[in-house]
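Progress against Task 2.4 (sequence-to-structure conversion) is shown through the following example record, which the project officer requested during the mid-term review.
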Amino acid sequence: MITAHKKTPYTKRLGKDIVSNWILYVMILPVIVYVLLFCYVPMYGVTLAFKAYRIKDGILGSPWVGLAYFSQFTRSYSFWNLIKNTLGISLYSLLIDFPIPIVFALMLNYLRLSKLKKTVQLISYAPHFISVVVMCGIIKLFFADNGPVNRLTVLLGGTTVNYLTSPAIYKSLYVWTGVWQGMGWSAIIYISALAGVDYEMHEAAIVDGATKIKRMIHIDLPSIKSTVMMLLIMRIGGLMGVGFDKAYLLQNELNLSSSEILATYVYKMGLIRSDYSLSTAAGLFNTVINLTLIVTANTVSKKLADESLF
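Structure tokens generated for the chain above:
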């Protein structure tokens, strides 16, 4: 008589694994404590979005108000302008900043002079290590009314352009300076993926008379499709998460109609006006939208391209 093998309970197997590999668990313990303390415990503060927070009563003592602050935020006169600016910068950045590193990596992959290739790589990803504060200082210096860019424009017969105060130019200034700073760094992962492409396919394509452009389209891009799709899904999931630092540092009263985004609004409501409940509601609204976007993008990618994060 054949008896069915009883599966060992998960908790029992985990206990045995901890006993036999206790050194590894001790090593990972500080990371677990860090994540719990600084990532999960602060999540309790999200309840501020549903309470009329009063400092003297604390979070626990403040009365519940339900979705009142979400309603206040979505009905405010600045709501649609915040959504338009945040999505405008994000989509602009996605359309420009996402494909350029891919193209750059493909071009760099066909550069056969190793010394020149390394030099180009070094120069391209060096700006990534410039802090946001220094980066914004450089932008303000170069694009000031009497800065090098305007001086060169006047020298060539043009007129001075108010780059830093023009709402129409703000998004382009934000995105293209971001491309310059992050292009080389973002290309590293694509360069690594391209290094794994079987060169025999390129040799066969060369024998058949394929040009470099055709090799890029029919060999390189399909080979790194998984990497591209994973990064695209993550970028779509962060569409509403435009970085606060750069947006705030380049912001002024004259370009406010284009530069005020959700991140700067949350900062001003919470830390400057001390309206903690409203700022938490706005931040939670932003997080929920991002979560919805990444789940939707992952689902669509899984069905159409058979690629997904989870």
